[in-house]
Design brief:
InterPro entries: DUF1285, DUF1285_beta_roll_sf, DUF1285_C, DUF1285_N. The protein is α+β, with helices and mostly antiparallel strands and 188 residues long. It has two domains: 84 residues, duf1285 like fold, CATH 3.10.540; 96 residues, duf1285 protein fold (Roll). It is built from three helices and 15 strands. β13 and β14 form a beta hairpin. It is elongated, with a radius of gyration of 18 Å.
Amino acid sequence: MSDTGKVGDLLAQIPKGEKKGLPPVHLWNPAFCGDIDMRIARDGTWFYMGTPIGRQAMVKLFSTIIRRDGDKYVLVTPVEMVGIQVDDAPFVAVSLQVEGGGESQLLRFTSNVEDEIVAGADHPIRVELDAQTGEPAPYLHVRSNLEALIHRNVFYQLVELAVPRDIDGQRWLGVWSGGQFFPIGLEP
């Protein structure tokens, strides 16, 4: 079957209804039907057969059925699972709203598929440093083992909000959200 047929079949199998929330992809264990030519670029753009998917509604729909199994990303329905390629993270945190301040501050992120995520114990922020360049790559836990890369402009907002804190004898800069402190870098 062609990739076009696979995507059509996949879309037809997504449960429809009035229910709010995400499908229970963690409960579905259908047969693996192979990889399809779908890729999520580092900037959050979804591609199908090398062409950007222009319909945001379709991207949002696919984003509800993505799951990560080990190092592999799959789109899954109750009866079919297909592998896709993800360059970095499947989501991008594209905006930030700050509510309150200090240790009671809440950081509300919006993803490229319009999910809202409040950083906290269930949705931690982490920062990886590139071993060669030292450039930070900040991430926000979205759900299960899926993350959003925090967009550079949003990360700059976090840097502006950063406050110092001693952790294990080192002075860190970080942000508070949901009663949790998230280190984003060592204080210079």
